[in-house]
Please model this.
Amino acid sequence: MTSGAKKLICAAAMMACAGPVSAETSHAHWSYDGDHGPSRWAELEASYSSCAGSEQSPIDLNGQAIPAAVHAPAVYWKEADVTSVTNNGHTFQVDLSDAGKIVIDDVPYHFLQFHFHSGSEHTFHGRRFPLEVHLVHQSADGRLAVIGVMFAQGEHNPLLDDLINVMPGAPGSLSPIMKVNLNDFLPGDWSAYRYEGSLTTPPCSEIVAWTVFEKPLSASADQFAVFETLFPHSYRPVQPQNRRFVLKTD
Ligand SMILES: [Zn+2]
Model:
């Protein structure tokens, strides 16, 4: 892979692209608190200026959505081999071989990777869930479609257990022999919000068609504790909706 291609994928994959993944970049260090925290991201370097943009993510989903305005994405996922699991210092990310695609408004977006935020990024009437997974897809022209699914405290989640078992405890990557079926991340109820937004980490590019499912999956308190210990409060605060519409599926 050329370094140019690697940079593109790193940006698209919302990874820090540092440490174990690539030593080539010299992007400013960012974090979820302190001097390099979210309120400072736009100032850290010129390429992060979008972090001060007007169509940023995440947002609070607060009942202002327009009902029955859109369809949920059409999903064509299949069980796939895990190619790598990565602790990049900000999140736990899983890359798969060929996991399929989703289609939104006739545009196909192929699956890239999924990762987690400890403390959900999207909130519902101000309520934050313990965990949110982001399923990241990319179209041929480089735009992204991300599906966000919440986890609420309840029954133990078998899929999360499989992933926790291979999660690197320190920054680095592993290539475990295992398969994941993304359909296991779908709640039974497909009610969802859709809106146009951004990456939730620097460079905060405003290139993301967001779909956030309303109904959460369940996981147990001890499972949440694993994520919170390794990636404490790894969420960006909600951003102003500004002039954007939030649409609700029919
Ligand atoms: Zn994310």
Q: What stands out?
A: The first helix runs from residue 3 to 12. The longest strand covers residues 107-118. The pocket of zinc ion is lined by residues 14, 115, 117, 134, 200 (CB under 6 Å).
